[in-house]
Every structure is written in C-alpha cells, then in structure tokens.
Design a protein that fits this description.
Layout: E1 3-15, E2 21-33, E3 37-41, H1 48-56, E4 63-68, E5 71-72, E6 80-83, H2 95-99, H3 101-105, H4 110-123, H5 139-152, E7 157-161, H6 169-186, E8 189-193, H7 197-203, E9 206-210, E10 217-222, H8 234-259
Parallel strand pairs: 3-8, 3-9, 6-7, 7-8
Antiparallel strand pairs: 1-2, 1-4, 4-5, 9-10
Helix pairs in contact: 4-5, 7-8
Length: about 260
C-alpha cells in the first residue's frame, strides 16, 4: 500500500489570549498508508485533535509540511471527511437532508442523493428515520447520522475526533463494532482520535502515542490482532498494558513538571 498521508517536521504554535506562545506540536513525522485504521492516543493536551485538524486542512502548520494523496495540503479537500465529538447536525433539517447535505452542495439531483443516502442510513441502522429531526434521536443515533453524512461524500480518508466520547458504554461498544464492520467492507483510510486505550486497541490496525505538550510521537504500534477483536484475549491485554504503561509515564512526567 502507498502512503496517503505524509507529515514531515511538523510544528504547531498558538498564541494565547494573554499573548503567550503555546507550542502544541513539535517535530511530528508520520506516514499513513491507504486503508490503515490509525488511532491517535495521548494525555490530555498532547495535541491529538490539533494534529487531526492539521491533517484535515482545517488549520495550517507553523512549520513543516503535510502531503495528502501526493500533494501538499493547503486547505480541506473533498476526498476527506470529518466527524467530531459534537454531532454538528443542522436542527432545522431532517435526517435524510442532514446526511445528504454534502451531495446537495455538489449539485447532485435530489433523486440521486436520496438513493445514495437511503442506502447509507440503512447500513448505519437509521432506516425509517429519514423524516426525523435531530432532537428526536438519541445521542447514538445522532452520531450515526453524523458519520453517515461524512461517508455520503465517499471520502478516501475519514478523520474522527473522539466520535464516541459522549456516548454511554453500551452504545459506544455497539458503535465501535458498526464502525469496524463498515471499515472491513470499504477499507477507507481512517484516522481516529480517542482518550481510551481500550478503544484504540479494539479498533486500530496501528496506534500512535503522543507525549505531553508539546506533543511529539513517542510510540508507533502495529496491532497484530484479527477482527472481530476480543477484549478478553490475552494478546489484547498485553497491548493494553504496554500502551497504558507508556501513557501513565507521560502523565507522571507532566505531573512532576507541573509541581516543580
């Protein structure tokens, strides 16, 4: 497989409201291949979401370069979709029109876009909710709709920023399984930010571990486990333990630094 994302010598600095320089990311070098399912983990404030937004072209790097599909990234591209933790659905549009919004912007006919979207809604367990509005749906169903909307545009890359973070445990497990089933069928490239080590091991073909701020890559793990994954598998537990140890070390370093 060829690289679909290449990041070289990336650095991101913000200026705070108090006019102080905040180094969010430093010396990020990363290559992601087509069809990989890459999970980004790290302590709070490690720059995971910032890195994801940089990959999506929503913000620009302070230094370094990001190439997506062989071209330097300057702005968001139509070949990539984004799913946030917040559902970001438009409350005045019903579900089918929310999911079809990107196709509508591309001037796809109403008949055609409804055909495409109805298949996706069925795939994500939203069949029969075409005419429902976001306020009528549960949190899990809203997030299904948000994912369906991102997928409707047939992106080659799907960026996901803690999409299941606000869901209850049972719904979260179900959404994880549904996402994996979708990925196994379509094999699009997915880059997924999560705070949960367990979620990362359950989902990812590869896990990138980031340090405390300024975020740097301190671990790159290939997860050699078949799908569907069993959380009680001994090898699953070994990955979890190793990754948690690395994360705990970063949290302890940050705590010591803050108390000194």
């Amino acid at each position: 497989m060829e690289n679909i994302i290449e990041i070289k010598q990336l650095k991101k600095t913000f200026i705070s409201e108090k006019k102080q320089k905040v180094d969010a990311l430093n010396n990020i070098n990363l290559e992601i291949k087509e069809q990989e399912f890459v999970c980004l983990i790290g302590p709070s404030g490690s720059g995971k979401s910032t890195l994801l937004r940089l990959m999506a072209g929503l913000i620009n790097p302070s230094e370094g370069r990001i190439d997506v599909m062989g071209k330097e990234l300057k702005e968001p591209i139509k070949e990539a979709g984004m799913v946030f933790q917040e559902y970001s659905l438009m409350p005045w549009r019903n579900i089918i029109d929310n999911v079809a919004f990107g196709l509508e912007l591309r001037r796809i006919s109403k008949k055609k876009r409804y055909e495409v979207v109805e298949n996706i809604l069925k795939r994500f367990g939203l069949e029969g909710f075409n005419d429902s509005f976001p306020y009528e749906l549960s949190g899990g169903m809203k997030q299904r709709a948000a994912i369906a909307r991102a997928i409707a545009n047939s992106p080659k890359i799907l960026y996901m920023d803690e999409p299941f973070g606000a869901l209850d445990a049972h719904t979260r497990f179900k959404m994880q399984k549904d996402l994996i089933n979708f990925w196994l069928e379509d094999k699009r490239t997915i880059v997924f930010v999560t705070h949960s080590v367990e979620e990362a091991v359950f989902l990812g073909t590869r896990i990138i571990v980031m340090s405390s701020r300024p975020g740097e890559i301190i671990g790159d793990f290939k997860i050699d486990l078949p799908y569907p994954r069993n959380r009680w598998n001994e090898k699953f537990g070994k990955y979890f333990k190793e990754l948690m140890g690395l994360m705990d070390g970063e949290v302890n370093k940050r705590t010591k630094k803050d108390t000194n």
